[in-house]
Amino acid sequence: MTSSSPTSSSSDDFVHILQHNAATATADEETGTTVSNENNNNMSAAAQRSLLQTLWSEATSTTDLHQRRSRVTRRISPTATSNNNTHQPSSDTSTSLLSKRSHVGKKKKSMSPRGYNNYSRRTKRVATKVWLAALAALAMALLIKIHVFLYQVLTTRNNNKNFDGLLSISSDTNNIDGVDAATIQQLLDNHNIDVEDTHSKMTLQEAHSHKLKGLPLPPNNIDTSQYTIRMNTWHRNEQLLLSINHHAKCEGVAEIQIIWCDTQNDPPDSILHHSSGKVKIERHHVNSLNERFKIVLDTPTVAILSLDDDVLRPCEALDAAFVRWMRHPERMVGFDVRTHVVESNNDHGDGMKNSNNNNNNNNNKESNTKTEGAATATGTTNWKYGYLSTTEKSNSYSLTLPRASFLHKDYLDLYIMAMPRPIYLYVAQHFECEDIAMSFFVSSLTGGRPPLITDYWAVKSMVKLYSEKKISGGKDHKSARDKCVDHFAQLLGVKEDGEWGPLQTADLIHYDEDRMFGYGAEPEDWDDIDELSMSSGRLKEFVLSMKELKVKSNKDQLKWLMRKKTETMKEAKKVGMIEKTEEWEERWKSGGDET
């Protein structure tokens, strides 16, 4: 009780002071303004006293002085404004404004918690949706990774099945039993093989079941009148251009496709834009002898003439082989003959013999094709490669070389897809034996029968272009080809115990009195071929010319052959690319220009 008395007294004093100041301010306003005394006396003395007491209690408070001071200012502002303005609103208007402001403030205070709760709930819902979306994305990514992992595992297992038989391979020993994973990776890194070709796309059994595309009936059909040359080349542009210049003149050539595996250099313009209009460059990013059988550009014909860039033959020789191929499109028809030599393992290397040795010393004419007879009943055999000298001496052959041979287009695709991978990978790694592989492959698909050969005069019509550097050869060349013959025959099932064997051999020369014709397996007589069955005038005339040549003397036949060879080598001889000619001696032996 004692503490309230000073406060009350101080409050009364403060009220009296404010009243005095208010009266003074009113007197000043009366002298300088037009505000009437009646308006200044609108607020009653009791209301002024109540307001002043409120101001005093707030002024003596010890909490939040700055906010309370601002509140006082807001509460006084209507009065101050009314005192300072030339037009003062009525007390009813001021009361209504204060009541409205107070109502709005209460409304804001009453709505604030509910608005905050609504905002909080919306935020939680959005956050929940975001988390659910993130979890769904994470689950989807995890599921994709699982699928990728399972696919890789299954793919690896399937590839491993192909590599189960691929044992390590040694470059020194030329072992072709298989290739390990490290060697395959090296081949991929060196661009010697495509990753898609590291495993077969077709089994050998499926290749045997494949039906070749048939030849359409004449007349006026390109497949029975022309063929496509696919020419393999490597850094021999001069020989390549000479070969193109000659073979482009042949009417039977529909197109010349150049297998270009040199990714570092482009073909010369003289080849790229050859004047014949028959030349197309087939670019390969893989450097391998397998690529010669990999068709990138579609061929306009079913008949394919596989040809090396350093071999020339008269157009008539090509037509002779083409006619023979058309009558047997499932066979390989070649010019170059080779044979395989069989050695029994029980002979310890001393019993090497030709596969046709049982018929070597007799004149058995009843059968043109003979099966392998050298395998012993007590042991396996080892096959070796027989060069041309061995082949001609034995008068028998079992394979031909794709450096000049006619093939059905499908055989090239089957080689890429179905060739056993140990063979395919060996060729890719060692750059050899692709010719043995193709010849044995076609023989495997035709029941072990040997390839067919064109007429003897056509075989002997070859013109070889000179090359300083030989692609094949060397001290290990023979031993490598021996292994190719033995292992390839085993993998392709054409050995004595093979599923599609044994590989048969055939006589080369059948009639001593007519050596220029009827060469190789299943010889045919030109007299038995109806020229009217040919689909083009060129081939009709050619068949007639062969019938005329056949009845000429051997001397006249040789003169005709020499004339055709001279025409074939004319351009090459002029530039010194025919070995042992005067032009060649002048260019290469006298130190002349070698460009």
Task: Please summarize what this structure is.
Helix content is 48%, strand content 11%.
Structure, described:
This protein is α/β, with parallel strands linked by helices and 595 residues long. Helix content is 48%, strand content 11%. It has helices spanning 4-32, 37-40, 45-59, 65-84, 91-163, 181-189, 204-209, 237-247, 269-272, 315-327, 388-394, 409-418, 421-430, 434-445, 456-459, 477-491, 537-550, 554-574, 582-589; strands spanning 227-232, 253-260, 279-283, 303-308, 311-312, 333-334, 337-344, 353-354, 369-370, 381-386, 396-397, 399-400, 404-408, 452-453, 463-464, 505-507. It has a seven-stranded mixed beta sheet. Strands 7, 8, 10 and 12 form a four-stranded antiparallel beta sheet that branches. Helix 1 packs across helix 3 (45-59). The radius of gyration is 52 Å and the shape is elongated. 32% of the residues are buried. Residues 1-10, 25-42, 62-66, 75-91, 93-111, 156-175, 348-352 and 356-379 have low confidence and may be disordered.
Provide key terms for this protein.
595 residues, alpha/beta, elongated
Instruction: Figure out the total of helices.
Output: 19
The largest β sheet comes out as: 7 strands, mixed
Instruction: Name the strands of the widest sheet in spatial order.
Output: 3-2-1-4-13-6-14
**Quick check: average pLDDT?**
79
**Tally of DSSP β-strands:** 16
Instruction: Name the helicity range.
Output: 40-55%
Low-confidence stretches: 1-10, 25-42, 62-66, 75-91, 93-111, 156-175, 348-352, 356-379
Structural class: alpha/beta
The termini sit apart by 132 Å
In percent terms, what proportion of residues is strand? 5-15%
Query: What is the approximate shape?
Result: elongated
Radius of gyration: 52 Å
